[in-house]
Design a protein that fits this description.
The chain is mainly α and about 160 residues long. It folds into two domains: about 1-80, RNA polymerase sigma factor, region 2, helix turn helix motif (Rna Polymerase Sigma Factor, Chain: A), CATH 1.10.1740.10; about 85-158, Arc Repressor Mutant, subunit A, CATH 1.10.10.10. It is about 75% helix and about 0% strand. Helix 2 runs parallel beside helix 4 and helix 4 (about 55-75) runs parallel beside helix 9. The chain starts with a helix and ends with a helix.
Length: about 160
């Protein structure tokens, strides 16, 4: 069983990962902070469900993912690639960065790309977090890579 100090240490250790995942889903800093706060509370209340400390990160990210999806539904927001900051649209240098291009991907491609490439999670871990099959995650990653190639190609041609 994980004690309070270990729980807090793990939360601090995965702070950036939680933010990246929450932000990739809700696309707003304030909403991401709300999602993270709620998810941490849920995780703490359900810490007994965690089988081992080794499984903490995927377990926590699944809670973040589910909380963000619930938050989106509750607030009736639709998130699309059109919701990119106008400043980013006008700033060609920023637009050319890979991070901005990844952020412009539609769901679920944005989330699986961030979890796989930025957070180094396995396909198996991602499938557990997103409640999909490993085959679906592989297909989503393949499609995301294809979209990224096309988006980056368009940016370099301009």
């Amino acid at each position: 069983m994980i004690d309070k100090d270990t729980f807090c240490e793990q939360i601090r250790l995965h702070e950036k990962t939680m933010y990246y995942l929450a932000f990739s889903l809700v696309q707003n800093e304030a909403d991401a902070a709300d999602v993270i706060g709620e998810a941490i509370l849920r995780a703490y209340k359900n810490i007994d469900a965690l089988k081992s400390e080794k499984a903490f990160k995927p377990w926590l990210l699944k809670i973040i993912h589910n909380t963000a999806v619930e938050y989106i539904r509750k607030n009736a927001k639709t998130i699309s690639s059109q919701e990119i900051d106008v400043a980013v649209e006008n700033d060609i240098e920023t637009k050319l960065t890979l991070w901005q291009t990844v952020k412009s991907l539609q769901q679920p491609y944005r989330t699986v790309t961030i979890l796989y490439y930025y957070e180094d999670l396995s396909i198996s871990e991602i499938s557990k977090i997103t409640d999909t099959t490993a085959v679906a995650v592989k297909q989503q990653l393949s499609r995301a890579r294809k979209q990224l190639r096309e988006l980056l190609k368009e940016d370099f041609v301009k």
